[in-house]
Amino acid sequence: MKGNVLVGQSGGPTSVINASLAGVITAAQGAAGAGTVGEVLGMRFAIEGFLQGHTVPLGAVSGDRLALLERTPASALGSCRYKLADEDLPAILRRLEEFDIRYLFYIGGNDTMDTIHRIEAYCRQEGYEIRGIGIPKTVDNDLFATDHTPGYPSAARYVALSVRQAGRLASDMRHVDQFVVHQTVGREAGWLAAASALARRAPHEAPHIIYTPERPLTREGIIEDVENAHREHGFVSIVVGEGIVWEDGSPVSAGTSRDRFANVEFGAMGGTSAAFAVHRLVSDHFGFRGEFQIPESLAMAADDRVVNLDRAEARRCGENAVERAMAGESGVMVTIERAPDEPYRTSIGTAPLREVAVRAKPMPEEYLEPGWVSERFLQYARPLVGEMPEYFTVEGNNG
Prior knowledge:
Number of helices: 12
Distance between the termini: 70 Å
Number of strands: 15
């Protein structure tokens, strides 16, 4: 099917989302060179920009520039968080016809998969032939049907390294600050918070407590956990997911709102964050002085902590999406499938977009323990994150 290629990036970025874009461009340039497709175009600021006719040519991007793109964090084409209304679909179809788009690739998370699913289904309904394939990304790792999402391993390493390094600071400053609370992103799933467990190489090291959105909390339980950890270690390192909730289901975060997709957005600053709420509870009860740390979106664009495996898998997903579209596939998202045995091996599969769109993947129950994670989760995460650095420790009394 001769026609042009269109690719976009949507939602929050990752440090490797541009590797997926580079994979799409490289494979599409190859198809264009073989005469299979025409031009290769990029959406400027995702579907919101495309509705206004904003595209950029990508077919002549050189190999050197593509290699640079692959190493560049954030979303090179520009992103958006635009929720399609039904009345947008005819306008999008007119744009697709205007640019003669027959191959559509959209890189993103749950809401992005909903967008391309609706576009692909509408085009099919209206008799406009197009092949639409989703390419996964999200640091939250909550995308359904894939073992993990490109972007998660690097963000997980960012969290683990941050907690490990901040843990050394907290340990050495324990006579000044008795505790620290570190917050990660993750509305409904605790994959990033859980990754902080990889920071701990010895029982006394940070973190000591991990709270994820999948396990509701009580104030009494937090106080007991902190008391036990402080008694044992002399200081306390706590990691919380931004979406942690109390037993009645209410968010620990004091400030919430809704985005265009009706997703809850949690307070990230000052007294509205989950980290500050936990900090205040501990400080008020024990009289401790402590810190709270909220990197927020920094893990989404930290090129200095990228996992090479993550970048390679991201590029592979982009290339495979184009290969599948050229072979006639449509209406699917490419997925990463992990072999069940050791060593770590993966292959690329697919899942129907209708099963992926707006469907979150929480952490399995077997990956969690009260205030911590299980060995099964650590086995899952270690190959993705890699080894943690070893630091000098003064021998003797840890008090």
